[in-house]
Amino acid sequence: MKLVVFGANSPTGRLVTAMAVTAGHTVTAITRRPADFPFFDFRVQAAAADAMDADAVDWVVRDHDAVVSVIGSPPSMSPVTVCSQVTYNIVKAMINHGVRRLLCVGSVDLDAPDLSRVSLRRQRAIRPLVLALSRAVQEDVRGMEGIVRETGLDWTVFRPGRLLSGSHVTDYRTTVRPLPCPLTSRADIAHALVRELTNGDHLGETVFVTSARRMR
Ligand SMILES: NC(=O)c1ccc[n+]([C@@H]2O[C@H](COP(=O)([O-])OP(=O)(O)OC[C@H]3O[C@@H](n4cnc5c(N)ncnc54)[C@H](OP(=O)(O)O)[C@@H]3O)[C@@H](O)[C@H]2O)c1
Description:
Elements: E1 2-6, H1 11-22, E2 26-31, E3 44-48, H2 54-61, E4 66-69, H3 82-97, E5 101-105, H4 120-149, E6 154-160, E7 162-164, E8 173-175, E9 183-185, H5 186-199, E10 205-210
Parallel strand pairs: 1-2, 1-4, 2-3, 4-5, 5-6, 6-10, 7-9
Antiparallel strand pairs: 8-10
The structure holds NADP nicotinamide-adenine-dinucleotide phosphate.
């Protein structure tokens, strides 16, 4: 397949790109920082684009078979619209060019941050700030998922838990309901995305991905 990967230069996006190429796909990798993109492979083409720019997104999406988005934004105290706006642009471009397959990464509700390694006294002090910082991003991700569900495209939304670094793929689980205290390695979410491109097991579904405990 000819894929467009938005957020290809993120830690997760780089793993998605590498695994997609290994699986036999070609990748158009969207990043605002192409000079930092570490792939030198004829099957990967980096394209500089700000995905908030609808015309730029329309240009890159045409002539592809599927779109993968791992776009994200840092915690913020102010309203954030990156995920929802970029996804709106992607969906519009896909409909415009007849591209039907869309895979996105959302997130489980991070309103309950993992502060288990912090003393109870400090937890009480920092929890309100952590919640406030994650709230705007959560709203944005919720908006993104809403847009995707309404499209009528062949979509799948993946929801990792708290993301962990690491390039080992574990014996992860994919479920339609969240498991308690989910943690997900970036390698596992990347693997799940690329596997879904091939298998198409979860069309029109929201899928929770949880890494195997012994490999975290
Ligand atoms: N961190 C967590 O615990 C967590 C938990 C659940 C879900 N997630 C989700 O998992 C995904 C991957 O997370 P991650 O930590 O590996 O990556 P990340 O650090 O969130 O990176 C996000 C990527 O989005 C791209 N991006 C943002 N705005 C853009 C714009 N206007 N135009 C083009 N690209 C833009 C950035 O690309 P460039 O800077 O290269 O342009 C960056 O590579 C994200 O969707 C995130 O929301 C994260």
